[in-house]
Design brief:
single chain, 247 residues, mainly alpha, Heme Oxygenase, Chain A, 11 helices, globular
């Protein structure tokens, strides 16, 4: 393999090919969810466990910003924290996710407590936070580029949930609707930053590995849900049990 860096077009194609190959929209759990095949408890399990991921996104972004000396990069990046935390109580992506939780019959306070998170979910999500906190800035930014592939899954999810589930409406699905406008802004900046800063073949390879790692974090969360609540349906100790935390 040549040590010469890929052209910008070829490098971007390498990054986008990761989504075509292994983004979590291809996981059987999402296929089940979007087609209306999930039971109410399987949907609740997904909402509870995904909440843990949602809460850690602004935490990993804050950890990233603590290492950034460039005020322009910090200024651009901090909007991601505001998107999830909001600027006031009741605003932002986390609050919108709790609306979804209430819509599927869960007590938002129970979901907020983080009781019932699957061990594998905690392990995968915490690994992502550590990665962004500890790795060089280039792979840390590159790991966020799964947002390249997110608009398609949000559109499919909105359409599938509205078609198949009674809980779905503009209020309960507001998280996904907002991400249709938030994610493209984030990814446009992140992709350009990676393209500008991955100057060597080693840089490009590090960015590719980081994006692969992030897709594996997302995939591992769905593997945990599938194993615990679909088949074989073996809920590990500490995992949410159907009937717990209902409103």
């Amino acid at each position: 393999m040549s040590d010469r860096p890929d052209s910008p077009a070829d490098f971007e194609a390498r990054l986008r090919a990761i989504g075509d190959r292994q983004y979590h929209d291809k996981h059987p759990f999402h296929e089940l969810l979007h087609s209306g095949g999930c039971t109410p408890d399987q949907v609740r399990a997904w909402v509870i466990n995904r909440y843990y991921y949602q809460t850690r996104i602004p935490m990993k972004d804050a950890a990233f910003m603590s290492r950034v000396s460039d005020p322009d990069l910090r200024r651009e990046w901090r909007s991601r924290i505001e998107d999830h935390d909001g600027r006031a109580p009741g605003e932002g992506g986390i609050a919108r996710w709790l609306k979804l939780a209430a819509g599927v019959g869960l007590d938002p306070d129970y979901v907020r407590s983080e009781v019932g998170i699957l061990p594998a979910t905690r392990f995968a999500v915490d690994a992502y936070v550590r990665f962004v906190r500890d790795e060089p800035l280039l792979p840390a930014v590159a790991s966020s580029l799964t947002e390249l592939f997110a608009p398609a899954i949000h559109k499919n999810r909105i359409a599938g949930l509205l078609e198949h589930y009674d809980f779905a409406n503009t209020d309960t699905l507001s998280y996904f609707q907002n991400r249709l406008t938030e994610a493209p802004k984030d990814v446009a900046f992140g992709l350009q930053w990676v393209m500008d800063n991955a100057r060597t073949r080693a840089d490009q390879d590090a960015a590719v590995r980081a994006l692969i790692f992030k897709t594996e974090v997302l995939w591992a969360q769905l593997d945990a849900l599938w194993s615990a609540y679909v088949e074989p349906g073996r809920i590990p100790p500490g995992g949410w049990q159907p009937g717990q935390g209902l409103a």
